[in-house]
Design brief:
A three-stranded parallel β-sheet has the order 1-2-3, with no helix packed on it. Helix content is 30%, strand content 13%. Strand 1, helix 2 and strand 2 form a beta-alpha-beta unit. The chain is an alpha/beta fold.
Length: 70
């Protein structure tokens, strides 16, 4: 849920995050943009699109995202 993501967004040193099979969407990913140490993100089985992935990677270029490509 959005409340959980807001909490996670404050975990500054988070390196890996698995959000697979949740109701996450592109707008939710923006809450993660300040996680400078985030290296791996799994969003398989979510409503995330290529636009959301591209936008987050442009802000966190070190990030590897596992997702269901459109």
């Amino acid at each position: 849920s959005r409340d959980v993501l807001e909490t996670i967004a404050n975990w500054n040193y988070l390196g890996h995050l698995d959000l697979a099979n949740t109701d996450v969407k592109d707008s939710d990913l923006q809450m993660l943009r300040n996680l400078k140490y985030l290296r791996h993100l799994n969003v398989r089985g979510t409503n995330v699109t290529s636009a959301g992935v591209d936008d987050l990677v442009s802000q966190l270029p070190q990030l590897k995202i596992i997702w269901d490509k459109e």
